[in-house]
From TrEMBL, chain A:
Descriptive protein name: Anaerobic glycerol-3-phosphate dehydrogenase subunit B
Keywords carried by this UniProt record: Flavoprotein, FMN, Oxidoreductase
The organism's place on the tree of life at top rank: Archaea
Matches recorded under InterPro entries: FAD-dep_OxRdtase_2_FAD-bd (IPR003953), FAD-oxidoreductase_2 (IPR050315), FAD/NAD-bd_sf (IPR036188), G3P_DH_GlpB_su (IPR009158)
Organism name: Natrinema ejinorense
Gene Ontology cellular-component terms listed: glycerol-3-phosphate dehydrogenase (FAD) complex
Record flagged with keyword Flavoprotein: yes
One Pfam assignment: FAD_binding_2
Matching Gene3D superfamilies: FAD/NAD(P)-binding domain
Domain FAD-dependent oxidoreductase 2 FAD-binding: 6-417
GO MF annotation terms: glycerol-3-phosphate dehydrogenase (quinone) activity
From TrEMBL, chain B:
Any GO BP: anaerobic respiration
Protein name as it appears in the record: Anaerobic glycerol-3-phosphate dehydrogenase subunit C
InterPro entries attached to this UniProt entry: 4Fe4S_Fe-S-bd, 4Fe4S_Fe_S_CS, Cys_rich_dom, G3P_DH_GlpC_su, Helical_ferredxn
UniProt keyword Disulfide bond, yes or no: no
GO molecular function list: 4 iron, 4 sulfur cluster binding; metal ion binding; oxidoreductase activity
Domain annotation 4Fe-4S ferredoxin-type: ranges: 75-108
Amino acid sequence: MAIEDDVLVIGGGLAGTTAALAAAQRDVQVRLVSAKQSTLRHASGLIDVLGYTPDGDGPLVDPFAALEGLPDGHPYERVGSEAVREALAFFDGIAGEAYAGSHTDANALVPTHGGTVKPTARYPVATAAGLASDDRDTVLVGFETLPDFEAPLAAAHLEAAGAPFAARGVTVRFPGIVRDDAKITRYAHLLDRDETLATATGESTARAALVETVRGHLQDETRIGFPAILGDDHADEVRADLADRLGVDVFEVPMGPPSLPGMRLADLLYDALEDAGVRVTTGVPVVDYESAADGTDADGSERIARVIVDRNGAAVPHRADQYVLATGGLVGKGVESERQRVFEPIFDCHVPHPTDRYDWFVDDVFGDHPYAQFGLPVDRELRPLDADDGPEFSNLRAAGAVLGGYDFAAEKSGSGVSLATGYVAGQRAGTEAGR
Amino acid sequence: MSDAEQPTDDGVPGDDEFEPIQVFPEAEEMDLRPGADDCYKCSTCDTNCPVAEVDDEFPGPKFQGPEQWRLKRQDDQDIDDSVMKCSNCMRCDSACPSDVPLSQMHNTARGEYVEEQMNKFSREYVRNRILANYRRLAPLGSMFPRTTNFVMGLSATQWLGEKVLGITGEREFPEFATETFREWWAARGGAQVQSEDKRIAYFHGCYSNYNTPEVAKALVHVYEHFGYEIMVPDQHCSGTPMFANGMLEDARRSAETNVRELAAAIEDGADIVASCSSCSMSLRQEYPELFDFDGTEDVAANTWDAVEYLRVHEDLEGELAGASVGDEFDDFAYHAPCHARNQGLDGQTTELLAAIDGVDAHDVGDSCSGISGTYGWKAENYETSMEIGSEMFDHMEASEAKTGLTECPTCSMQMEHGTGYEITHTLEVLEAALVGTETAPQ
């Protein structure tokens, strides 16, 4: 026996959750297995599609216009630009009012915690008032105990980057936080619950105390930006409350990991999975697979019979008709390397790479490193291809950063590729399993 | 013996040509360096820590694990006493994207702190030793269960517990059953089903033996329904409360007994199943991380959660499809214990109960219950424990179900304490669906 479903998605990030949700649109039972908690907790929460071309041109105003010019093998080229649009519309349907940006094809320019500006297609509503294309003067507030966001530096960077407004940064103490390395969840929890605190002027609540701390720093700006720690479960309420008391728009600046906007996005997607009846198993890795005993399919490719999930040494078989591999790239461990080779650890799918490891990188730190594009080549069905360009397996598709042929960090295309390929892989898997 | 000692090259076996140069001397005791080196400081563990979220004093798992380990390389550096505030929920383990063995680091740090820095005559030490060794006291209480329940229920006893020992007076002590599971098992003549090829050894743990034998009996009825021969080997506490209190020597003694007995059962053709998620967690993960008796790995690899085992080895979903439980049970507010979550079992109960007519398990969210075994019993942690649990209490009350469901004994105490709901174990529901409690043999 095995734990049985129709579609099994391996990986709990943006590509995996999207694939599971897309598959679940069909009348099939879907399961998502994630080795660890979703890595969306590291994500900025921004949904980029394409900020720069592979040649480095950009920031792009219209990412969709640039999709047609992408080279063969790029994940967007594989699925086609129409699928990218459909995937974004699918995401918009799930995110509802939590995300903005669907009113236009043009990229929005979102200021980051480093004071750079990131071209992005969708963004959490919490960041909406902070867009760099908005010419209102801005004050950024940092906290002494939160060294990841240096507000005066970020403001100076924004101005140097040519933002069409005056930006100022101030650093204050966050009321109610004493220790130097308080967790971001601690800040969020204080504001979410509006906890009672002792301040210099007597008892107060967390939100009121924060408002009193920053009020004097506002001059004639009409918007104020905080690092993204303004609440977790009740972030909208916290932001609205602060804006109301301060009389100006309040926005969040997306932060590095760990990231509350990423956690909120994870919550949103996992709630959608629950609503869609997708079964979720987290904390245990898929480590191996077994082929179908009756050998190969009509097209000569192998068929996966079941995969093995490892639970502290016990092998737990999981069987499905269709499988989606969305385990991430080199950082997410979907693609691994050792001194002699680069490989995909579960199914040992083909990962093209030079045999000499000195050809995996270039000397210039910020140069075009070949390793950034290491990953699986796929056909237009998103089935991983072997060295002879035939499908590795007839019932396996791949999505997200495990795919090769693109450099998401340079292009700013990570989320969009995950959405588009997750959507297509999930839909195909769901359709085929439902047959 | 543990993950932490694997090579750090993130590689797979069989790569023979690479010969690593030994830069550091061979470790003489447990070497956690590879684990510490795997930490790339993303701080995701910190955002999963239920204690750090509500307690500004607690520096979080990243500090307790890799950072403290590095600090300790200095000879004059003591373990920070904040390690005692860690509740050992082990959520940091499944949060870490880089496989850092955080709870193993916490367990070893806490053990070292208690061994070398804690005053053995302090009230805290005595109290922790008592809480950690519940298994040694339970047989005494269980000898005269009605008297014990009466005395433990007295407000004077609770007051004394708080004043003298620092055990919170806010909670009511769990009642002892009038007949332990093992007494019942002996009285019924042991296994009622004999089988050469379907055999399990049941690790019942302390709580279902002394306090909730109905859970253990449910397991017996369900497994016999599927034709399993059940062995009930001699056993000691799984060690969970001992790890959490840094009593590693006590835990080692218990683990030695358990590994010996369970390894012998495996020799006899049995797989091990446990009904308590912390017991299975302990056998599967903490034993191989902390001990290296003969058979430790073998026991870990052959231990299963009782429900998961049936799911993989029997057509449990098929049997449950269309089964009903009558009027006895209604919908449940289900809480997945942290230690079940860490075994990838958090979705299992809601999935299975959906197949049974007349009941549904509504998940009350992914927050920790806050009690974490002995943690919430300590007077100084009571408030924090209830604050951590408040999210779960809110969700339970918002759910339409008026009965709670979980697989962890202390989560169950906390759920009952925070809401006043009656709390059931999943195996009891399976028993009602598959065997029927009315017709169950004795």
